[in-house]
Amino acid sequence: MHVKTMEGLIGARTNMELLNTPFRVFKEARRKGDTAMMERAMGYMGDFHEDAYEYKEKADEGMKKDAEETRKIAEEQREEAIEKRREEREKLEERIAENRNSDTNTDTVEISEEGKVLLKDNTETDSTDSDVTKTDVVKEAVTYTKTGETVSEEQDPSISVSV
């Protein structure tokens, strides 16, 4: 809270409370019919009332300055947040570019000699028909065990059923 705001609020409250005394004196003087005392009490009430409004104006000025400071702080925080997001985005883009350019995180595939021969056989073309590939290569069916070893087809599968 701005100093002027605090000073204004406290001053206005104090002067409004100080109005009670001359107002009480005014009521008593009116009851007695003492016009001179009534006029003096009214003078004091007017002074306190004017002071209260002066302090109210100070409080208004202080609140305006508070609002300006709050606006400035909010703007600075917004700019900092924007800059932080911009930096994070740039870092992310740099990491993405590094990942695209680096070969250390890529997987490699090795083709066995059998695979190379099959690939060569399948991609050879006749001199008359260059768009057609050979697909008449005979492939043997291979069965694999749980450990990944191949099992020849010469073994007859055995099935045992008990009832």
Topology at a glance:
Layout (H helix, E strand, L loop, with lengths): L2 H16 L1 H13 L2 H67 L11 H11 L19 E2 L5 E2 L12
Antiparallel strand pairs: 1-2
Helix pairs in contact: 1-3, 2-3
Overview of the structural elements:
The longest helix is centred in the middle third of the chain and has 67 residues, at 35-101. The protein is rod-shaped, with a radius of gyration of 48 Å. Strands 1-2 form a two-stranded antiparallel ribbon. It has helices at residues 3-18, 20-32, 35-101, 113-123, and strands at residues 143-144, 150-151. By secondary structure, the protein is an all-alpha fold. α1 packs antiparallel against α3 and α2 (20-32) runs antiparallel to α3. The two termini are 92 Å apart. It contains 4 helices and 2 strands, in the order ααααββ.
Give the oligomeric state. Answer: single chain
Summarize the helix and strand pattern as letters. Answer: HHHHEE
**Order of strands across the widest beta sheet?**
1-2
Estimate the mean pLDDT confidence.
81
Kindly state the percentage of residues in helix. 55-70%
| Low-confidence parts | none
Q: Count of helical segments?
A: 4
Structural class assignment:
mainly alpha
Question: Notable features of this structure?
Answer:
163 residues, 2 strands, 4 helices, mainly alpha, two-stranded antiparallel ribbon
